[in-house]
């Protein structure tokens, strides 16, 4: 009897051959897709085929039209958002996990998926310096990780006031106070919106020139308050004074949005910037940012596993073999992929020293970039404490967006524009394992060339 999966094997070989060829081109290709490549995307605008196509033909079309229209964010000269590349072991694990096609619902549906999530959870808590009894949930990214942790916080703060939101809902619920710095990330605000909170309810705290909350300006808080902090400002990379905030919390729930900045805890050289972070109640980070796993992978970490379970479980609590809750009862999704596989591969291949080196190299490259920009006449607007650089060219400050666009169109690098403390600027995030000194130098040359055309 013929194995029907031979068709899958053939498709996998075809895809591997084409993916291998794609990766070979990345160091020298345009980081942004060319206008011609973008225009060819209209070739996908066809009616759905009436008849089946051979898998190889389908993959060929994806590659021949799609690959040129990608942004080469897997390479070393992409500095937009806070996007890492994909570590070799994590990429290989993604391919293998795709062949497995596991549904990590519980231990019965995927023994390997659940096992690796539990192993990786312990590794993450260790390398991030967090309490060993925290829960770790693997979700799509920081937005859903914030949603997960803040749902647990909301329910707990209401429970303290005698309100069971799982039975009574939010209508007529007692108030929950929310305290946040004015530099809170938009994904946290989105999570709050999904949880039924509006921005008018937030008690805003002023921030300093680096985007850190000024702890002396915190309002008096209590045990019905949610305090939103961050490790790693999306522009400056700075972290809130979490130790001071926790000390003043008065039993408030303290949440740390550390989508990329929490990884600073993995390096002895940067860990001090997060002083006191381990005393918070919940934390969020991404794998697909500084750890360089494939998209999409975020982690919701909580000191109070029961609170997460109570917020996320969909039926009367029951325990799996070994007394551990099923993954489906610790995150929003039921049908969920084996994200823990790629995180395990990344951490296993790097080891603790490798993760610390990844963090340290990114920070060193950011400092190299900042020094080179200064040599070009730029003013650096942030203290370069992690992997973020914010810079403006005084003579052409108002044309920061033009400079970013012109460099993108050159294909030499990709970074974006921002507005930092009222000043138009360029924003760089050095987060890819693939970025080298040569990439930084090539980027600087492209910026110099662009500036010369504006003079």
In short:
Its cofactor is pyridoxal 5'-phosphate. 39% of the residues lie in helices and 12% in strands.
Could you characterize what this model shows?
- The chain has 455 residues and is of the alpha/beta class.
- It folds into 3 domains: 6-72; 93-346, Aspartate Aminotransferase, domain 2 (3-Layer(aba) Sandwich); 356-454, Aspartate Aminotransferase, domain 1, CATH 3.90.1150.
- The chain has helices spanning 6-25, 35-39, 55-66, 88-100, 111-127, 142-159, 165-168, 186-194, 242-247, 305-312, 339-375, 400-410, 437-454; strands at 135-139, 177-181, 202-205, 225-230, 253-257, 282-286, 298-302, 379-380, 388-392, 416-420, 423-429.
- Helix 5 (111-127) packs parallel to helix 11.
- The radius of gyration is 23 Å and the shape is globular.
- The model is unreliable at 316-321 (pLDDT under 50).
CATH class membership of the largest domain? Alpha Beta
Give the beta-strand count.
11
Architecture (CATH level 2) name of the largest domain? 3-Layer(aba) Sandwich
Total of helices: 13
Detail the poorly predicted runs: 316-321
Q: Into which percent range does the helicity of residues fall?
A: 25-40%
Q: What is the CATH topology assignment of the largest domain?
A: Aspartate Aminotransferase, domain 2
Assess the beta-strand content as a share of residues. Answer: 5-15%
End-to-end span in angstroms?
A: 72 Å
What structural class should be given to the helix and strand makeup? alpha/beta
Based on CA atoms alone, the radius of gyration comes out at 23 Å
**Strand order within the widest sheet?**
1-7-6-5-4-2-3
Average pLDDT figure:
96
Q: What is the 3D shape?
A: globular
Number of domains: 3
Major β-sheet annotation:
7 strands, mixed
String of helices and strands: HHHHHEHHEHEEHEEEHHEEHEEH
CATH superfamily of the largest domain: Type I PLP-dependent aspartate aminotransferase-like (Major domain)
